[in-house]
């Protein structure tokens, strides 16, 4: 049986808000009956971010609003904020979970549970928006954008958001929908300071989040995100076009752009045992198989001088020469300057730190140039002609038969200098005598270049190889550095034109005689055994989200990752201690369960079993006997403790 009525959605209205306005209009005697009426689930929580059972909700809605599950998800939930930075197949799974009864699994798939960026504890509102709703004589409502993690400012009014008294935490206090008209207080707007860089950054984060919500992107390839970042970093000189990141420069410029106060406010500090080796920023700009929280992406995109809209318009692949096809620059072809070239090969080496590309047309003309392109006209530039081709040669023959044309004019029409014209005339065997004109024969060097280029190249290669091998034979212990200093020109030529041969004829690297040091491995073993045990204890007792005790984590804490990897066979006691303190996945999961149980105690929330499992991020291990036992014991511990605490507070 369908509903008799349902509110008409407002712009950017949260589904939670629609349900709250429906409940207020229906005037149920029991507000907790609203979730059951709408979603067909008794005792269901009023979910804000990724609600589930949307298929049931859409089926019971009246025909007027035509709110399909797809429209509810894309226009009235927070999924579009996350979906742009998730894999397409994962977004499809989350949408299926939200249409059915497994919406809470979406928290696992979206990475919300594993992220350091927390979800706001309360629904938030903009005082200026609430006042605007009242001026327009409409009921105040909850906006989606205001509930996005990391959004602290209203993008429409530039006003700081305020917290309401409506909790977003799952539990007994969140079993009913509450309207913004009931919860939003009349407060004076706190406007941002336009001269404050942190405030401007917060405003841009809010605007980018609003754009993501209004323009849902159903997933992205992680390689595509990385390609866009590499392109922008290379343009800033913070990476090479071959994929190497200038880590120190990137970290220095990023922390200079985003202040520590801003990063701390957004819970996006650059943490890690070694900040220059591991943190969320470096994970974003390096190839990865794991998705990251959208807020991280927004901060990086803003630092690189783009909006989210501009970012997603960039090509997914690193294309320093733009998207093909490219122009053929053969002046003798009838398709001159037309976009007909489809073959572009990136050079193996950079030229002065910039990429090189080789472009080959079907007419035989090939050229190379240096990138990247900064304007549309850059694609029409030629750095070096590699091959002229038969079409160009036919054009030369045709012009050569026209005795009214000078050699200079032919060169201008064919895009080369007069000497090149003379060389190719000689190479092609064209008559030097033309009506009224007599072309002087080329000198020896020019003839060599014109009709025996290949022979000259072979001779050059022979001389360079011979000189290189001669020096090596004279001194068997010569080093590559010495060879380069004695034969700089030969080395440069071989490196560019005969690199494969050069690689096979380099002198063997000389081994340096390292001083032998006697290490007391027994003493070192005892020291590291104690240090490993202490480091494991510190990792387990560290505040905040639990960190798994692994060999790498212990090695990083001790600054001895390499030692524990390569020399552990010399330290049997350390190996034994390490094996005893390293956690398995199940042990780490059990520890997370009890950590989450303590959080629920601090929050005074009696969680259900599925809520505990989701928040502890142990869904994939829920069938493990150890995890099952830990969850059951934690639930049994929570109920009497919370009941006792509430009785004591009531007595006071």
Question: What is the element layout, followed by pairings?
Answer:
Blueprint: H1 15-26, H2 33-39, H3 54-60, H4 69-76, H5 79-83, H6 88-99, H7 105-110, E1 122-125, H8 127-135, E2 153-154, E3 159-160, E4 162-167, H9 180-183, H10 197-214, H11 222-235, H12 247-257, H13 260-265, H14 280-285, H15 294-303, H16 308-313, E5 326-327, E6 339-341, E7 343-346, E8 356-360, E9 366-370, E10 384-387, H17 389-400, H18 407-414, H19 418-427, E11 433-434, E12 437-438, H20 444-451, H21 453-474, H22 480-486, H23 488-497, H24 499-504, H25 521-541, H26 551-558, H27 561-566, H28 572-581, H29 585-603, H30 609-615, H31 625-651
Antiparallel strand pairs: 1-4, 2-3, 5-6, 7-8, 8-9, 9-10, 11-12
Helix pairs in contact: 10-15, 18-19, 19-20, 20-21, 21-23, 25-26, 25-28, 29-31
Structure description:
- The chain is of the alpha+beta class and 652 residues long.
- Among the domains are: 182 residues, no CATH class; 93 residues, no CATH class; 52 residues; 63 residues; 66 residues.
- The chain has 31 helices and twelve strands.
- The strands form five sheets. Strands 7-8-9-10 form a four-stranded antiparallel sheet, with no helix packed on it.
- Helix 18 crosses helix 19 and helix 29 runs parallel beside helix 31.
- The longest helix is centred in the last third of the chain and has 27 residues.
- The radius of gyration is 35 Å and the shape is flat.
């Amino acid at each position: 049986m369908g509903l008799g009525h349902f509110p008409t959605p407002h712009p950017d209205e949260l589904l939670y808000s629609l349900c709250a306005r429906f409940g207020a209009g229906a005037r149920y005697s029991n507000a907790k009956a609203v979730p059951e009426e709408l979603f067909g689930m008794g005792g269901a929580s009023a979910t804000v971010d990724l609600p589930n059972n949307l298929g049931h909700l859409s089926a019971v809605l009246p025909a007027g609003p035509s709110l399909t599950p797809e429209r509810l998800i894309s226009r009235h939930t927070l999924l579009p904020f996350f979906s742009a930075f998730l894999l397409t197949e994962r977004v499809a799974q989350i949408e299926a979970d939200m249409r059915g009864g497994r919406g809470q699994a979406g928290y696992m798939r979206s990475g919300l549970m594993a992220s350091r960026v927390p979800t706001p504890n309360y629904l938030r509102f903009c005082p200026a928006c609430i006042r605007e709703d009242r001026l327009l004589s409409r009921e105040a409502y909850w906006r989606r954008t205001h509930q996005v993690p990391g959004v602290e400012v209203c993008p429409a009014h530039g006003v700081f958001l305020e917290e309401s008294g409506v909790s977003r935490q799952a539990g007994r206090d969140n079993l009913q929908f509450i309207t913004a008209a009931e919860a939003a207080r009349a407060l004076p707007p706190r406007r941002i300071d336009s001269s404050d860089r942190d405030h401007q950054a917060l405003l841009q984060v809010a605007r980018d989040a609003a754009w993501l919500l209004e323009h849902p992107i159903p997933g992205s390839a992680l390689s595509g995100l990385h390609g866009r970042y590499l392109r922008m970093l290379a343009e800033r000189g913070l990476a090479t076009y071959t994929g190497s990141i200038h880590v120190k420069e990137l970290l220095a410029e990023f922390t200079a752009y985003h202040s520590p106060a801003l990063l701390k406010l957004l819970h996006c500090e650059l943490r890690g045992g070694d900040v220059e080796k591991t943190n969320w920023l470096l994970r974003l700009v390096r190839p990865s198989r794991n998705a990251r929280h959208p807020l991280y992406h927004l901060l990086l995109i803003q630092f690189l001088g783009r909006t989210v809209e501009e970012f997603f318009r960039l090509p997914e692949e690193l294309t320093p020469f733009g998207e093909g096809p490219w122009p053929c620059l053969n002046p003798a072809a009838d398709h001159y300057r037309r976009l007909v070239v489809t073959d572009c090969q990136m050079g193996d080496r950079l030229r002065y730190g910039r990429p090189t590309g080789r472009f080959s047309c079907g007419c035989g003309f090939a050229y190379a140039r240096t990138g990247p392109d900064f304007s549309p006209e850059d694609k029409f530039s030629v750095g070096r002609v590699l091959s002229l081709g038969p079409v160009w040669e036919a054009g030369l023959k045709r012009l050569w038969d026209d005795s009214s044309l000078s050699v200079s004019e032919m060169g201008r029409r064919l895009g080369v200098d007069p000497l090149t014209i003379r060389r190719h005339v000689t190479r092609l065997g064209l008559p030097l005598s033309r009506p009224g004109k007599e072309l002087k024969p080329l000198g020896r060097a020019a003839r060599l270049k014109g009709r025996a280029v290949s022979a000259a190249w072979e001779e050059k290669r022979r001389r360079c190889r011979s000189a290189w091998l001669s020096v090596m034979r004279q001194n068997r212990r010569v080093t590559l550095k010495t060879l380069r200093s004695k034969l700089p020109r030969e080395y440069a030529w071989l490196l560019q034109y005969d690199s494969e041969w050069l690689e096979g004829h380099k002198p063997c690297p000389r081994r340096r005689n390292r001083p032998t040091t006697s290490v007391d491995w027994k003493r070192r073993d005892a020291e590291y055994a104690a240090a490993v045990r202490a480091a494991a204890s510190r990792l387990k007792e560290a505040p905040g989200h639990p960190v798994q005790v692994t060999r790498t984590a212990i090695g990083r804490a001790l600054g001895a990752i390499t030692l524990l990897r390569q020399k552990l066979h010399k330290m049997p006691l350390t190996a034994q201690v390490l094996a005893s303190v390293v956690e398995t996945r199940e042990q780490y999961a059990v520890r997370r369960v009890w950590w989450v149980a303590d959080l629920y105690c601090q929050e005074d929330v009696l969680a259900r079993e599925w809520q505990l499992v989701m928040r502890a991020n142990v869904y994939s291990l829920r069938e493990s006997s150890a995890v099952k036992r830990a969850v059951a014991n934690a639930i049994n511990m929570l109920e009497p403790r919370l009941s006792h605490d509430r009785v004591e507070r009531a007595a006071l």
